[in-house]
Amino acid sequence: MELFWKNKDLDKRRFWAVPYIEVLVFLVVLPMIMIAFYAFTNGAGHFTFYNFVQFFTQSDAINTLIYSFGIALITTIVCLVVGYPAAYFMATRSFRIPAVMIILFILPMWVNFLLRTIATAELFGLVGLPLDENALIFGMCYDFLPFMIYPILTSLSKIDTALLEASQDLGATRLQTFFKVILPLSKPGIQSGVIMVFMPTVSTFAISELLTHNKIKLFGSIIQESINSGVMLNYGAALSLILLVFINLTMLLGKNADKESSLH
User: Fold this and answer.
1) How many domains does the chain have?
2) With a threshold of 0.85, does the pTM exceed it?
3) Is 50 among the domain residues?
4) Residue 14 region, left (φ>0) first, then alpha (ψ -120 to 50), else beta?
5) Are 167 and 234 in the same domain?
6) Same domain, residue pair 115 and 28
7) Alpha-carbon span 62 to 239, nearest angstrom
8) Domain for residue 51, yes or no?
9) How far apart are the first and last CA of the chain?
10) Within a domain: 88
11) Are residues 245 and 161 in the same domain?
12) Domain span at residue 30?
């Protein structure tokens, strides 16, 4: 009888996993298969490497990819430098109203992404600031800063206060406690925040179009224009696949570097 109930519970768990599997298949697996199909075919549906050759023989596309990674890196660093102290401040026990600060960070996310970007552009125009690279980075940081704060805040909130008390009892100063206890324990949140900011930043196109009047093109802009034109659909799919590979390689190298630093 006990074995029967165990098998029954197992079946229930598998049943509840079905919707997630369906979403994963239809929204992740199938789109990836379609992107790969179009990337390795031409307009007639014939297999070809021409789309990739076209990218690697065009210096403008390669330079745009490098520039996009640079903008994404700057945005991620700025969000980390600003977001970590904010998350640390909200996670501090002496701070009595962390819920209020969290709501203040959540409120802008209730507004449509494009509306926030348009409002940022209008704000720059109101104060007479030019819509250039600085406006682009500011808009990126404004839109993606909450995605850096929340994972770090979650990691900091889960730290056992007994570890902090033990560190102080052993004679560590507050600065030593932070670098030896708090910072290492918050690394999972930092890694999640970096991924959640870096990945969408390197592939976005709407922010650059709205905050620079399309004067600055990111790699996502080239992909969007290629796919929307219809004529260069296969080339746009190839660019999407190339960007995905570069992003995964970047994340993989980051994880390997973190593992090596932890071993040392």
Assistant:
1) 2
2) no
3) no
4) alpha
5) yes
6) no
7) 10
8) no
9) 52
10) yes
11) yes
12) 2-39
Q: What is the 3-state secondary structure (H, E, C) of 153-208?
A: HHHHHCCCHHHHHHHHHCCCCHHHHHHHHHHHHCHHHHHHHHHHHHHHHHHCCHHH
Query: What would the pLDDT profile of 74-84 be if each residue is shown by its tens digit?
Result: 999 999 999 99
* Bridge partners for 41 per DSSP: 47
Looking at the structure, do residues 131 and 22 belong to the same domain, yes or no?
no
Based on the fold, state whether residues 66 and 35 are members of the same structural domain.
no
Q: For the segment 106-115, what is each residue's pLDDT rounded down to a tens digit? A: 777 788 888 8
Structure tokens at 228: 């929307």
Same domain? For 16 and 139 the reply is no
